[in-house]
Amino acid sequence: MQDAAPLLRRAFAEINQNRRRRLYAAYEIYPEFVYCEPERFNWSDADARTNVFDLYYLYDSGYIDLVKSVTEGHRRPDFYMLTPKGADLMEVPGRLDERFPVC
Questions:
Q1: Which of 11, 19, 47, 67 has its Cβ near the most Cβ atoms within 10 Å?
Q2: Separation between Cα atoms, residue 55 and residue 53, nearest integer Å
Q3: Sign of CA dihedral 62, 23, 43, 50
Q4: Residue 70 pLDDT
């Protein structure tokens, strides 16, 4: 991906905070989809690419489902929604902090 921005170098706590934000957004409007604004989820800006990276991590882990599109040759999410596994992560006491601790 020659035209993709580099991923931001982040501390463990920053990674977990961003992933938790994505999960909270999905949990608040479940069972609706969260819209991924193109300016906040794209490949050409480092902050936005980091958001895409975190969404795909959560998707690969089974916590969210993605509706994907192909933009400029790269997979970019259009929407995401919490899965039952993601809901359990949010609702079982201590599970979110165990999986994504904020140090």
A1: 19
A2: 6
A3: negative
A4: 63
